[in-house]
Sequence to fold (303 residues):
Amino acid sequence: MDKLQTIKVFIEVAKQQSFSAAAEVLGISAPVATRAVAELEGRLRVKLFNRTTRLVRLTESGTRFFNDTQRILEDLDEAESHAAGVYATPSGTLTLTAPVMFGQKHIMPIVNEYLGMYEEVGVKAMFFDRLGSLLEEELDVAIRIGHLKDSSLYAVQVGSVRRIICGAPSYFKRKGIPKYPQDLLEHDLIFSNTVDSGSTWHFQNQGHKESVKLSPRLMCNQNAAAVSTALKGFGITRLMSYQVGEEIEKGTLQSVLTGYEEEPLPVHIIHVEGRRANAKVRAFIDLAVERLRENPYINSQTK
Fold:
């Protein structure tokens, strides 16, 4: 097997974390894949994988080699694809995911615009408040809120969001406005466990951090339900700024304790293919980056 082929086998084994799975993707036998990696390790005189009966993981040297060779192959594939015209017209089905309310409020308008621009594409949009694996779930694009942990993904930051504590003006007229985090102990609280999984809310003010353990009057697992209940004046809730931005702008919800908010969380568009992304992916990302960076609900840090 030539040098380029052994590198391609190595990269696929690294991605699949399995010789047999990589062999299936490449259309070769598992022994051939194993020999290719062994040949590569012999040529480099370095161990690229740690192997057990169940797991195949990159060594430190293997990780560096993976990052370097993947970039080289991406450049080669990009050159071939440009020559062949593969990137010319978006087509096929784009699969994407985002948090539920973010998807409904801020991604679907982009999806609709995208569908109107490209007649040969379809979209499979899946919105859920959990983190899925792009590779395992065969996703093309994902919107992630928070700090990224997977360094193998390609990411473009498009904005940031804050956790906002808010309630209806009618509630504050009746119960008063909390001035300090500890004041929340005297208020009716609405928890959404997709934003706060525990009973403790964290705050910071001029570098000082504090936490308050609270007991909610209502606990729900859907952000829309928390918004609806807060709008009716039943209590104070804490949600992401993009979830209540319109309500705060209209005045139907009022933010409080703004001086105690935690640091904003970044919003990224992520994908796995980098510069090799085909036309349907690149076209959607280009459009989504432009629209989301224009979106005041994920780019305004006004408190």
